[in-house]
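Thread: "does anyone have the structure for this chain?"

Original post by V.I.:
We have the sequence but no experimental structure in hand. Need at least a predicted one for the grant figures.
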Amino acid sequence: MARRERLICASSDLVEKSRGVRFEFERQGTQRPAFVVRFDGSPHAFLNQCGHVPVELDWQEGEFFDVSRLYLICATHGALYHPGTGACVGGRCAGRGLIPVPVVERDGHVYVMEDHE
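Reply from O.Q.:
Generated one for you, tokens below.
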């Protein structure tokens, strides 16, 4: 199985601890909603699915950070996740973190890495 890069957005679209960019990610032959945010200077991407119940996190499109801008938050349950790792840090995620999505930043763009046969 080969890996292919697919463009998500320009690097300038991701501002540190600000709005994220939503995109579709193919996982096990199915398109799934995902998102990417910038944290600690790097892009971090995850499936857009709460670890508690499989609902999307953002309360408005692209709004994934809590008011402190320190954590990603599920708008439905209030579960908190570390934006660099996706680890559950509080709330109703019961220790289940976000599922990471592989991304790479190069030449002013952010790409998702997808498996293809």
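V.I.: this helps a lot. The mean pLDDT is 92.
O.Q.: and The chain has one domain: 2-116.
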